[in-house]
Amino acid sequence: MKFSQPILCKQCSLANWENVMFRRGLKVSVVGAAGGIGQPLSLLLKQNPLIKTLSLYDITSTRGVAADLSHICSDCHVCSFEGAGQMKASLVGADVVVVAAGLPRKPGMTRDQLLDANASVAASVAKAISDACPGALLAFITNPVNTIVPIVAEILKSEDAYDPKRLFGVTTLDVVRAKTFLSDSLGVEPQDVNVPVIGGHAGTTILPIISQCNPKFEGSDEEREQLVHRIQEAGTEVVKAKAGKGSATLSMAFAGAHFVNSLLRGINGEELVIECAYVESDVSEADYFSTPLLLGPKGIEENLGLPDLDEIEEAALEKLIPVLKKNIHTGVEYAQAII
Ligand code: NAI
C-alpha cells in the first residue's frame, strides 16, 4: 500500500497536514531558522537520518534558506514558513521544536541584557506551541536561558499545555566546550571525555563537575580553576573574537543538533540516552537546574540528579544558587505580568 508523504511546505494548508493519515519518520521544527545559529543548525538537522520533515520558520528570509537546504540529497523534506502569520503552521505535527530565535550578545553585553528583547519572542513562540504542537519536546536555545525557560513554562501553564518533562533549556554547548577544553588538558580525544556540567547557562551558574570527569583530571588546582573559568566564559571569548558580528553560532549549531538528535533517539525508544539540560527540577533550591537527564519517548524519563561534588564544587554550587533563583524569579515575574 502506498502512503502519501506529508509534504508541509508554504503551498500546503494546515488542513492538508491534518489529513495525512500516516507519518513517515519524525518532524523537527526550527524557530529562528534564518539566523546565525538557525542556518547551520538546520544544515546539520537536514543530514539527520531520524528526521523526515524539517520545518523552518523565521520572521524573515526563511524561503531562501529552505530552498538552499532542499537541494541537499538527504531523505528529509524541508518546508519553509515566513512571517508571524505562519509560525503556528510551521509547528503543527512537530515531534521536536528547537528555538534559536532572538538577539545574540554583542561585545560587553551579559546574557541577562538580552531579556528585554528575547522574552517576548520566547513568549510568542510558547503560545504558538501550546496551540499547534502541545505534545512536542521543546528545546530553547534563546538567551538568557536561565530566565527564558521559566517564562516559557509559565506561558505554557497558563495555556494548560505545560509538561515539565518536555521543556528543556539547551546547555549542551557548555558540555561540548568542557569536553573540548578538558581533552586538550588530558591529552585524549574530546569524544572520549565525559563530564557533567550542571546549574544554569550564564557565567558562574555554569558549573562543570571536573571531579567527576572521566578520564580523571589530574591537573593542579590552579589549572582546574582556569579550566572552569574558561568553560564559564567561553561564550564571551567567541563574542569578543567576532567583534560585534554575533555570538557562538557554529559550535552552538553543533551542540543543538547533538541535543536534538538525543531527544529523537529518546523518542525512538533508544536506551541510555543521557544529556545535561536546564529543566524544572527539585535537585537544588533553584526551581530550574541543569543535571544529567535520562531521555525517553516522552522527554525526561528520569532526572539523574546531582553528581557527587567535591568541596570546591559544593562551594561553587552554594554561590550559584542565589544567582539562578534571581534569574528564575525574574522570568516568573515577567511571564505573570503578561499572562
Ligand atoms: P541571530 O540574530 O543571528 O538570529 C536570530 C534569528 O531569530 C533571526 O533570523 C531573527 O529573524 C529570528 N527571530 C527574531 N525574532 C523572531 C520571532 N519572533 N520568531 C522567529 N524568529 C525570530 O542570533 P543567533 O546568533 O542565531 O542567536 C540566537 C539566540 O541564541 C540568541 O538569543 C543567542 O544569545 C542564543 N544563544 C544561545 C546559546 C546557548 O548555549 N543556549 C549559545 C549561543 C547563542
UniProtKB/TrEMBL annotation:
SUPFAM superfamilies: LDH C-terminal domain-like, NAD(P)-binding Rossmann-fold domains. Gene3D superfamilies: Lactate dehydrogenase/glycoside hydrolase, family 4, C-terminal, NAD(P)-binding Rossmann-like Domain. One of its GO terms (biological process) is malate metabolic process. CDD domains: MDH_glyoxysomal_mitochondrial. Residues 27-169 form the Lactate/malate dehydrogenase N-terminal domain. NAD(+) binds at residues 32-38, 58, 118, 141-143, 252. GO terms for molecular function: L-malate dehydrogenase (NAD+) activity. Its EC number is 1.1.1.37. The keyword Oxidoreductase applies. It catalyses: (S)-malate + NAD(+) = oxaloacetate + NADH + H(+). Substrate binds at residues 105, 111, 143, 177. The keyword Transmembrane helix does not apply. Homodimer. This is Malate dehydrogenase. It comes from Drosophila busckii.
